[in-house]
Amino acid sequence: MKVRLFAVAALVLTLAVAASSASARTNVSGRAAASKITVWLQVDAQTGWPDLVAAANQAFQAKHPGVSVDVQYQTWGDHLGKFDATLAGGGVPDVIEMGNTEMTKYMAAGAFANLTSQKGSFANSKNWLKGLAASGIYNNKVYGVPYYAGSRVVTYRSDLYKKAGVKIPTSLAAFAADAKKLMAKNPRKGFSPVYTAGTDWYFAMSFVYDFGGQIAALKHGKWVGQLESKKSQAGLAAYKRFFNVASRASKTGTENRPYPYDVYSQGQAASIVGPAWFSCCVGKKYTKVTKQFVMPSHVKGQGMPGFLGGSDLAVPKASGDQALATDWIRIFTNTAGEKGLQSKGNIPNATNLLGNSVNERAAKRSWFVPTAKNWVNVENGNVLRTMLARILTGKQSTKAAAAFADSNIELTLNQ
Amino acid sequence: MWDAIGVVVFVVIAFPVYWMIASAFKPDHELNSLTPTWFSLHPTLSHFGDAIHRPFFWDGVKNSLIVVTVTVALSMVCAFLAAIALAKFRFTGRKLFIILIIGIQMLPQVGLIIPLYVVLARYHQVNALSGVIVTYMTFVLPFSVWMLRGFLLGVPKDLEEAAMVDGSSRIGSFTRILLPLVAPGLVATSIFAFITTWNEYIFARVLLNDQAKQTATVWLSYFTGTSRNTDWGGLMAGSTLIAIPVIIFFLLVQRKIAFGLTTGAVRG
Amino acid sequence: MTPSELPGTAYAAEAGIRPRRRRPFTVARVVRGAAPYLLILPVVAIVVAILGYPLYHLARLSFQKYGLFELIAHHGTNVGWANYSSILHDQVFWHVLVRTIVFTVANVALTMGIGTLLALLLTKVSSVVRVLLTAGLVLAWSMPPVVAVQVWLWMTNYENGVLNYTLTKLHVGNYFQHDWYATPFSQLSLTTSLIVWGAIPFVVVTVYAGLTQVPTEIVEAAEIDGARPWRVFWDVTVPIIKPIFLVLTSLSIIWDFGVFTQPFLLIDQTRINASNELMGVYLFEEGYLKTDFGRGAAISILMLLIVAILSIFYVRKMVRMGDEAR
Fold first, then answer.
1. Which of A269, A320, B89, C144 is the least buried, fewest Cβ under 10 Å from its Cβ?
2. Which chain B residues touch A344 with a CB distance below 8 Å?
3. Contact check, Cβ <8 Å, C258/B9
4. What is the mean pLDDT of residues C217-235?
């Protein structure tokens, strides 16, 4: 009996040893001459501008005959998980699209190739949008090429505005007054003149930056939370006042449940604040009367800084052929490519290409999150959302809620 | 009376499914309307058309079918053999094997994603259906063994002994007596294995890169994976379509569940 | 009878040889002895080949500092028990643990209770209703969690959800714009409803399969003898389905304790915080979102130990049951 047990155990152990010894050779890709490059773009490109991708591939293959391009579309929810797996086990893509808020963490960890010396070779690099370019820079080195951006605008019902005798506001105060007029003319239960979710921090922080405040600042190499500063407090107070006048959304609710454009399409909102593409989904009934304008600042005549969302393209260090990968990015983001993206409603990556759409005008004044490698943890920890919920529900004073958030931010960013 | 209760229970259990299917037929404005629509008066097939025409729909279905049928078939055979060993034999290392079986199920799968990817990469099983099959088998086998052992233990011993007195050898008694008796358990376990692997998402997502190789659930994730608006009607239509193979599998095997002892397996 | 057919000892005695203690080494005996090992070999081989290294790696990781930087460098730094110590000293971990245990007990009780009742119901209804009900259960079972979550969200939508609408119309109360995700209790209750709804079909189908193993002759004999239905159930049915019941309960405990997809998708990442996290979500947040793989590995090991302790009662019963049957 014992002999048989040992025999089986030996067999099992052999398998285990075989498995682990096969792993002794690390598998980091080091192809001599690549015959294929792998590009990870988000599914937005697959549904939004597949023709631009195809054009770039064609141009690339004309320039590098014998090298094929394998574009693999990813989804926002898990592309980083997949990326992490490839970083650990091999199979890293040659080009990867990263959200601008996702870049810093990976740049700090040394995931990407340094493109600083080649910056000049990218089209319009001298005029890259400051907000977007900043997301691809770490320690003064360029790791990411700006791909495209999107700003925040106000999408509104021109018919309701006309009926209430309201014109496009040029200042925050005027907007608040307009909201009151709209509310008076539409006394329906749950109707919002300007629907915005309570904890939509992208919108709320715009107020903070508009009044000259900021989320956090790097002082002597340490991050210091700035939400308690006088200017930030003024911005938060202005946000609370505006919310109470203009929005009937849940004070603790988020901007993805429900989507503002769903509320709009149900006829429960005269205007919504969000990305410019919101206009796609306002429902057949209101498409004809839907227009957009730039969110006004508290200072008359200018726009409130909007959160600049967007994507960068980077080359992972472990890529098999960085030169080819960089060339692909060069081709994809050249002037023709960027103009193509612009025609699909995006903001191109350089100021000299900017047109006059509402989206692009709104991008003239923008803000971005602190470029700290742990910023993503602050976002994932919902620190700002918790703060806004407490402020709006009155559970804590603006000062106290901001103090709590600041200490949380400092703890996380300085880890 | 029991039938009435049965129908009420059916309505409660199936309501979310009904909501999904009904939504697949609703035009967009009804999906988001302020008052919920129970039944669309203007049903549309456009969502189904959109879903089918999305790239790689048929690839997704094909890959899922391959992965799931191979996984379930192989797993049922291997698990059944192991369950027999556990239920009918006394051997050294039995407790160790049981600990292995139970222990694996207690591992949070989330924690295993990256190490598993690393292992499969070394065997060149990344971006391959075989890698996914082998991964799924690793997770299906433990609970299948555990469940089948439970069913085997439930078979009254005297039936087995009666069969042996009849002159059948041990192996003969397995196939002629035991198998039909355990059939309902085998079927229940295979349905569970089928559905679990059909709906598995995380490992398929991480292991498969080529969209042409991806399974149906990964295909489905592209509906909600965009940073723009989600096509809810398309998602519901896609989900309804993807549920069809599961229903077909169930209909094929469900008669075997009630395959009781009345079909002549017992003599006297 | 030829000498070779006599039992060994008697033959030896006849032949005047002292009986040997070793059992005869025939081919049949070897095959029978090796049989169980051969039977379990496929399972063991696959599981060890695929999970052997990951398990070893996971254990090793739990003693290392291993973030994104270390992942890229393929090299972690050893920190001994630091990961475990930091988790065990974290207040949040203990709150999450207690919350998850309560959650698990509630979910398992509801799943097994309702599941068994429905399985019994299946034996009582006519065959048409049985197919209908089983079909409904399988349909519910086959909905991918992502889709089920979406349907739940629609039903509980703040603005136009069917639940708010119906409750208001039925005058149960004013549920206009009721936010079902405002409090942790409400969030976790909805998560429970989603999980139990998805888990019941499995229990029903499996228990029903077990019930069909109950020999009808014995049941009829008992009923003819005048035994009441409850007695029949207890004395005849229960012993046969007991192993299955234990299996299902142990599996349910294991799965419900580590559940991740449903709470994460239903409550949504934007509303998850220390007051509504469950262990599976806590692991994901601490290990993956914060890219601290060493900590995540330590949490995984702790979860493994905890769930082993929670389910030990049922598992031991299952193992003993197998021994008794021999």
1. B89
2. none
3. no
4. 76
